[in-house]
Amino acid sequence: MKKKILAAILCVAMVGTMLMGCADGGSESGSGGGSSDGESKDSYKVGITIQSLSNAYWAGVMGKLEELLKDKGWDYTLVDCEDNSGTQVGQIENFITSGCDLIMVHPSDAEAVEGVCGEALDAGIKVMCWDDPMENTTANWVLDNEVLGQEIGKTAAEFINEYFTADEKAQVTVIGYPSTKVLKERADGIKKGLEDNCEDNYEIIAEVDGLEAPEAQTNVETVMSAHPDANIFVGVGAGAMIGANEALLAEFGKGKIPENYGVITTDVTQQQLDSLKSGEEAVRAIVGFEGSNLDTAQACLDMFERILSGEDFSSEKNIVRTIGPITDENIDKILEGM
Asked: What is the spatial distance between Cα 307 and Cα 27, in angstroms, rounded to a whole number?
């Protein structure tokens, strides 16, 4: 009888040890999500929390990413934290509880979600951050926002140098969102790009917020009321471009915007591309990323697969995205993937 009891105890202990081994491994090297040994699965469970789906760029890319995830047959949940870090922490907690293989976070406030992302890693879940070089992640898919800003500034400088002189300076408005760290870096880069590439032919007359288009339009209209000669608008994203362009269309009308007025920002949305393609609006140039919404969504999915395959990012977890200008030569191809 004692032997039977001992055997039963040993059996329970072995099962417990096996279960502990399955649950262990929440390190940054990425041993969670059911793929700790690097073996692939037919399907994964992914939780995605986005800063704001009111942003046209994010909405477009996430729409294409959803299509790709459905095609692969993966189980996913995509939520919008409405730029509220407390909400986003709760969303990540729900992803942990639901047993996701991978969590992707686009942080409202990266510091605010570091702790809960650490909890995800401890639970054996892989974590990818889009935009911020976070600590408690498996890998970060990031832009060098100062470099991106400098490229926007350089592109704007090319336009300014064509139309303005030291005697007749461009009146520049910078449309940013300094409460978000990466966008402040981007706006600072824009100013550096202008400074490095312009001749003595511009002055910054205003800096306003404009993450979303309605806010940008209202603030640009206010600037134009106070500064009737305001003519160049540079910004950190799609909302800045769309809002500024709408303000100028309201002021002048389509096809009537003076040729020395211009809007230059980044992001890639259908509305931005259509405005650039028309040649009758204020959009003069866009600094883009991988290409179309589909191109960016596919590049994001490729990152998911790299992380879930068990790739080791311990030596360099910040994977920098590509940037490049959208021109007459490549705009039609990009439009195909929107």
From this structure: 13
